[in-house]
Amino acid sequence: MAYWRPASILLLLLPILFVTASAYSSTQLNTLLVSYNISPGLIAQLTPVYLNVSGVEYVLLYNHTVPYFLVNTSSDSFVINASSIYSVIHAYIFNQSYASLNFSQLAKQMKAYQASSSGPIDDCLHETGLSTGLTCNLSNYCYSCQVVPVCKAVLSNTSGPTGVLGQGIMEFEKQYNALNNSYSAFYASTSNVTKANVLQKIAQLMSSFANITNLTTTLHENPIFPPQNVTPNMLATCTSYYTPTSAPWYCTALGFCEALTFNSTLLSKMQSEINAINSTPLSNEQIFSLAERLASNELDYILPVLSRQHYALLQRILNTELANYSSLISSVSTLLSHVNNSALLNSTLNLEKAYASLQSNYLTENITQQAQLVASMLNNVSEMYARLNATYARLLSLANNNTATLIKAELTNPYQQGLASLAFLQLSLNKQLSGSISNISSFELALTNMSSKLKHYQTSSYTLADFARGIDGAFARPIVYSMHLPYASAKALAPFIGSLLALIIGVVVLGALAFVRSYLRLKRKIVINEKTRRNWLLLFGIVGIGIILYYAASLSLLEYANAHASPSAFYASLQNAKDVIIAINGTPTLNAYSCASSIGARLGSMGKHAVLISLANGLCKVGNATVSEDYCLNYYSALNDPIIMLSNSSQAGIGLYSLYGTLLSYSGNATVMQACYPYLLLN
Q1: How many Cβ atoms sit within 10 Å of the Cβ of residue 263?
Q2: pLDDT tens digits for range 338-353
Q3: Backbone angles phi, psi at 113, to 5 degrees
Q4: pLDDT tens digits for 80-112?
Q5: Would you list the DSSP string of 40-99?
Q6: How far is CA 322 from CA 59, 148, 666, in A?
Q7: Is 0.85 surpassed by the pTM of this model?
Q8: Can you tell me the distance from the alpha carbon of 256 to that of 154, in angstroms, rounded to the nearest whole number?
C-alpha cells in the first residue's frame, strides 16, 4: 500500500487535466530545459504537473515521485528561491500528501495486532483473578490472586505479594490498563481525520504507537510470562547474581501464564507505514524543506548558466542605473557625521541593505525588479541628501564668512572691544559644525546673529602705514634685493632703506630752499642783514626739524608695516599680482598639502597663477629646481608677489606684513591646517 503516491495514477491524470488549460507547450518546456544543459535522459524521466497560483501559471516537474524543478511559465524561467517555491507548491503538496494517507488500514492492522495476543492475555487475566474486576496490590495482599486457588498456592510459595508472582501480577495489571488506553488513543487518532487536524492526529498516532510498542516489550519481560528469545548462555549467567532483585528479568521468570503471541512482523510493518506517514510533507517545515531540496536540485543544473547571465545583468545594472551608489553613500556618510538626521540615516541603511541583497541574491531574486526597487531607494536618498546638504552648505558658508570677517577684524585691529569674546563664540560654533549638529534651526539662528554682530567691526582700513608702504616699499625692495643679504637681514634692513627716501626728499627740500635763497640774493630781491639772516636760519631750522621728524615718522611707519599689515594691503598686492606664492614651510603634512591645494584652486578661479614652493632645511624647492631659501624669499619679495606661508607648528597663529614683499603667515597643528583660514580670506 502506498501512502505517498504523487507519481502514480494522480500524476498520470493531472497533466491531462492541466495541460489543456495551460498555454505553455511541452516544446517550450523542453527548450527551456535543454538551454540549461539538462540531459535528455533526465528530461525523459520528468512528469509535469501544471499549477495556477494567484493567476500565475507554473509547471512542477517530478522525477519519478520526487518534485525536481519548478518553472514559471509566465516568465519562462526557473523558480529557484526556496521561499518562492514554497509559496507556489505549498497548497498542492499538502493536498496531495493528505490524499495519500490511509488511516483506516492502520486501524485494521492494529486490531489484528491486538487480537494476535488477546488469547494469552485474557487467559492470564483469568489465572491471576484480574478478570473478576478485583485488583492486586500490597494493601489487599494481592486479593485477585487469592480468589484463584492455583494462583493463591503459587503466591504463597513465592513470598506472597512481595515475591516474584505478586510483583509480576501488580505490574501486569498496570501494563494491561496502559496498553488498553494506548489502543484507544491509537484508534482515536485514526478516526475523524481532517485537513485541519491531520498534523495533530499524526502526532497522537506516533505517541500512542510508541506506547504500544514499549508496553509490548515490557509485557514480554514480565516474570509471570515464559521468557522468550532467551538463550541458554543468557540463563547461565543468572547464578552470578547475589539476589533475585539484581538479576535480569528472565532469571526470575515463572511462566505462570502462557506465552504471549504478539505478531512482531505486523508491528514492524505498521512501524514502517507510520514512519512513511510521518515523513509525508504536510507541515510547513516539511514542505519548506522540500522546497529547499527542489531549489538545490535546480541550482545544481542551472547555476552555471544562470550565474553568467544574471551576473552580467547585475554588473550592467550596477554600472548604469546604480553607478552613483558608492559616491552617494560616501557623501551621505560624511554629511551625517556633521548633521543628525534620522530620516536620511534610516533611508540610507535600508538602501545599503537592499543593495547588498541585490549583490548577494542576484541568482535567486528577480534582478530587474529588485534593481528598480534599489534605484527608487537610491533616488529617494539622493534627493534627501541634496536637500540636507544644501542646508549644511548654507550653514558652512555662514560660518566661513563669520570666521573670515573675524580674522580680517583681528588683522585690522585686534584690540576692538568685544572681538575676543566673539572669536571664542565663533570657534565654538565651528567646532559644532565640524562635529554633529542636532538642531539645525537653532544653529543657523546662532550663526545669523553672529553675522549681524560682526557687521559693526572694522575689517579693513587705509592707514599712514599703508601710505608709507606704497611709496617707500617700491623704493626699498629693489635696493635691498640688490644687496644680496640673507632674507632675515634684508627684511630687517628694509625699513631703514625705505626711510632713506624721506631723507633724500628732505635733502632735496633743503637744497631747493638754499637755491631759492641764493637766487633771491643774486637778483637782489632780498637784502642780507642781521635780521634777514636770523629769519633764514630760523626757516632752515624749522625745515630741518621737519625733515628729521618726517624721516623718523617714515622709519616708524615702515618698521610697523614690516611687521604688520592690514587686509586691504594684502588684497591690493593680490589684485596687482599675476603670480601668488604658496609656501609650505618645514615638515609638510597632508592637511598642509590639502590646504595649499584648496588655496591654489581658489586662486585659479580668480585668474591668478599659484606657485607652490617648499621651504625646509634652508632650501627652497620650486618645481624641479632647488635654490637657497634666502634667494627664494628675496626673489619673490622683490617682485612683491604675495606669499601665503603655511607652517606646521604647535603654536597657532595668522599674521600679515607687507614692506619687503607681502606675506600672509599661517601656522598651527593638523587641526588648524585642516581649517585652512587663508582660504577663507580669499573668498
Answers
A1: 16
A2: 888 889 999 999 989 9
A3: -65, -45
A4: 889 999 999 999 999 999 999 989 999 999 999
A5: HHHHHHEEEEEEEETTEEEEEEEETTEEEEEEETTTTEE---HHHHHHHHHHHHHHHHHH
A6: 34, 93, 43
A7: no
A8: 9
